[in-house]
Specification:
Strand order of the largest sheet of chain A: 1-3-2-8-10-9-16-17-13-11-12
Radius of gyration of chain B: 21 Å
CATH class of the largest domain in chain A: Alpha Beta
Distance between the termini of chain B: 65 Å
Helix content of chain B: 40-55%
Mean pLDDT of chain A: 96
Oligomer: heterodimer
Distance between the termini of chain A: 20 Å
Structural class of chain A: alpha+beta
Helix content of chain A: 25-40%
Radius of gyration of chain A: 21 Å
Number of strands of chain A: 17
Strand content of chain B: under 5%
Low-confidence stretches of chain B: none
CATH superfamily of the largest domain in chain A: Amidase signature (AS) domain
Structural class of chain B: mainly alpha
Largest interface: A-B, 38 and 33 residues
CATH topology of the largest domain in chain A: Amidase signature (AS) enzymes
Shape of chain A: globular
């Protein structure tokens, strides 16, 4: 394997440094990423579009500017780093599919999404668009139109969803950095199942302009990577208020609060609690072992109880169902047969829900957020499993959890949904410990959620970095030998 | 909690009001998911809410663009 082929399987910050010093060109890096996609994606199915021409043109422009002595560009944090985005982000010249068949008829976009533009402004190079659950309504990325995304660590298993392609592309070593969205767990669930790091920032932190919505009240955007340092670099590059006339009404347009330089501070002084009750009741043996391993490394011995968690999950479920259904009512009336069969009936049901249920859900969300804020007066960080179990097999409808039979597709996110409901920042970190008991295979990862108070992504990432530094959490590139 | 019969009646009436022509193949799934939603709504009913609790949906008024000075 050549130097650049090894480099492209490593960390984004190392790639940027190699381009910065002239060790490798941005063009060679883009070519290596495109070659890796070509060599692996028939098995993984992470990509729905590869923007090779655009990537090579962009990389060549970077190389030319560097050759002419553009020192401002040379300092760019993501210089030459290949990245890809869930196909609900606008990409100039492509239709924004949002995982659907219906949107194949929509016209190509004139402009990139705001976060794509920001990553490219930081030096990154877009190489393509990624597979997802249709309209982001799912936790498995078994997309009937595009085919399922295969988990790179076991190709017979799901990648999780709805940002399944985003997690799988990182785990497969196709790119070191991707973007996804998270309404109820769609960054954290695939991070958990594919064994990569994923950050769901605070609700209202990153602008969603130029992305296809699912549930405006709950939609978040965020990055995936194989290291916490790379997550922080990308997250910092995407922060800050919008300057254009059309802005995301759900974005609070806060100034940059940089995190990358904070990572080395470690966990000293942070009060870390381990969530009990609901978060242990709905977790299998491997998920519990992962949380316990993280807690032990962090010296977290205090147990915390999240108030109103069942009600919070119910509120998120109803708001999602109603807003998601209403968004697509016109197409559901006229072309329901073109929807994803695995989620169509849920969308149809969502259009019908009584307004009083949804209003109450939004009011319960308010009191739930207030109650959890009081818990954060005693803790800085909370820990919980990201998924009840490791990746299930593609096509599997049910899983067993502590003697209870549960549907995979709606329940893989039952541990993530309570946090996105109230917009807390969460980093999912992948843990590969041996299962304590039960039959889950040890070779598969499972995620631990590192949860912070609103706007404290810095603390979340510091704890995630500590877990990575000690080896409790890591995100290796999949061997892809099967 | 709604009975299965109440859910069927509700779904048919609501779909009709919305001009949503449910196909026979889709109806059982819709009934199942409305039943799940009803269970979720019942969970919400257990949370006491003072009338002062506002929905967690914010609206920011939109001012006109500033006039361009000649």
């Amino acid at each position: 394997m050549s130097g650049v082929d090894t480099l492209v399987l490593g960390a984004a910050d190392a790639m940027a440094q190699a381009v910065r010093t002239g060790e490798v060109s941005a063009t060679a890096l883009a070519q290596a990423s495109l070659a890796r996609i070509e060599a692996t994606d028939a098995r993984v199915n992470a990509f729905t579009a590869v923007t090779g021409d655009r990537a090579l043109a962009r990389a060549a422009a970077l190389d030319a500017a560097l050759a002419q002595g553009d020192e401002a560009l040379r300092a760019s944090p993501l210089l030459g780093v290949p990245f890809a985005v869930k196909n609900l982000f606008d990409i100039a010249g492509l239709s924004t599919l949002a995982g659907s068949k219906i949107e194949r008829d929509s016209p190509p976009k004139a402009h990139d999404a705001e976060l794509v533009r920001r990553l490219e402004a930081a030096g990154a190079v877009l190489v393509g668009a990624l597979n997802m659950d249709e309209y982001a309504y799912g936790f498995t990325t078994e997309n009937s139109h595009e085919g399922p995304v295969h988990n790179p660590h076991d190709l017979e298993r799901i990648a999780g969803g709805s940002s399944g392609g985003s997690a799988a592309a990182v785990a497969a070593g196709q790119v070191p950095l991707t973007l996804g969205s998270d309404t109820n767990g769609s960054i954290r669930v695939p991070s958990s199942l594919c064994g990569v790091f994923g950050l769901k920032p605070t609700f209202g932190r990153l602008p969603r302009s130029g992305s296809y919505p699912f549930v405006s009240s709950l939609d978040h955007l965020g990055p995936f990577a194989r290291s916490v340092g790379d997550l922080a670099l990308a997250y910092d590059a995407m922060q800050g208020p919008e300057t254009g006339a059309l802005r995301d009404a759900g974005c609070l347009q806060r100034p940059l609060e940089a995190t990358h330089a904070e990572l080395a501070k470690g966990t000293q002084g942070l009060r870390i609690g381990v969530l009990d009750g609901y978060f242990r009741r709905y977790a299998g043996a491997q998920a519990l072992a992962a949380v316990d391993a993280a807690a032990q490394m962090l010296g977290a011995i205090e147990v915390a109880h999240l108030p109103l968690v069942e009600a919070g999950r119910a509120a998120a479920f109803l708001i999602t169902n109603a807003e998601g259904g209403a968004l697509h009512l016109s197409d559901l009336r006229t072309r329901a047969e073109d929807f994803e069969p695995l989620s169509r009936d849920r969308f149809l049901a969502g259009t019908l829900l009584p307004a009083a249920w949804i209003d109450r859900a939004q009011r319960v969300r308010r009191v739930y957020a207030q109650a959890v804020a009081r818990l954060f007066e005693h803790f800085d960080i909370l820990l919980a499993p990201a998924t009840p179990c490791a990746a299930t097999t593609i096509g599997q409808e049910w899983f067993e959890l502590n003697g209870q039979r549960m549907l995979v597709r709606p329940n893989m996110g039952l541990l993530t949904q309570p946090f996105s409901c109230i917009g807390l920042p969460v980093c999912a970190v992948p843990v590969w410990g041996e299962p304590a008991r039960g039959g889950e295979p040890a070779a598969l990862p499972i995620g631990v959620q590192v949860i912070g108070a609103p706007w404290r992504e810095d603390r979340v990432l510091r704890v995630a970095a500590a877990l990575q530094a000690t080896g409790v959490a890591h995100a290796p590139v999949a061997a892809l030998t099967a | 909690m709604m009975t299965p019969e109440q859910i069927e009646a509700f779904v048919d009436a609501s779909a009709s009001a919305l001009a949503l022509n449910l196909q026979p193949a889709h109806r059982p799934g819709v009934l199942r998911f409305v039943a799940i939603a009803a269970e979720m709504a019942a969970v919400l009913d257990t949370v006491p809410l003072d009338e002062s609790v506002e929905p967690a949906v914010n609206f920011v008024p939109v001012p006109p663009a500033p006039e361009v000075q000649p």
